[in-house]
Amino acid sequence: MLGAAAEFERSLIKERVAAGLAEAKRSGKQLGRPKLVFRRDEVKRLREEEGLSLREIGARLGLTLATVARAVKAA
Predict the structure, then answer these.
(1) What's the rounded Cα separation, in Å, for the pair 60 and 20?
(2) How many whole angstroms separate alpha carbon 7 and alpha carbon 2?
(3) Is 45 exposed, middle or buried, given 0-12, 13-18 or 19+ CB atoms closer than 10 A?
(4) Phi/psi at 74 (nearest 5 deg)?
(5) pLDDT (tens digit per residue) in 46-62
């Protein structure tokens, strides 16, 4: 009996969360983590002109290795 009540409560929570997310999208709110703002042209320049490694670029600009790698791949 307790299990059935817990399942019902969980379904109610799930519906409320989905409704809240849908309303936020309709009102134009930004959902999720904000995009990281940095100079992608600077990453490209450091890689091509100075020949720095991805780790060195990340250390110099204060970015993670994965962020630098994505920026290089996109360029």
Answers:
(1) 41
(2) 9
(3) middle
(4) -75, -25
(5) 999 999 999 999 999 99
* Whether pTM exceeds 0.70: no
Task: Encode pLDDT of 36-48 as tens digits.
Answer: 889 999 999 999 9
The domain defined by 35-75 folds into: Arc Repressor Mutant, subunit A (1.10.10)
Question: Could you tell me the residue ranges of all domains in the chain?
Answer: 1-32, 35-75
Q: Is residue 57 exposed (0-12), middle (13-18) or buried (19+ Cβ within 10 Å)?
A: buried
Tell me: pLDDT of 75 over 90.
no
HSE toward the beta carbon, residue 49, CA cutoff 13 A: 6
Tally of helices (H runs) and strands (E runs) in the chain: 4, 0
